[in-house]
Amino acid sequence: VKTGYSELSICVRDDGGGFREDAEKITEAFYGQNVKDSLKHAGMGMYISRLYCEKHGGRLVLGNDEQGGAVVTAIFRRIA
Question: What average pLDDT does the chain have?
Answer without folding.
Answer: 83
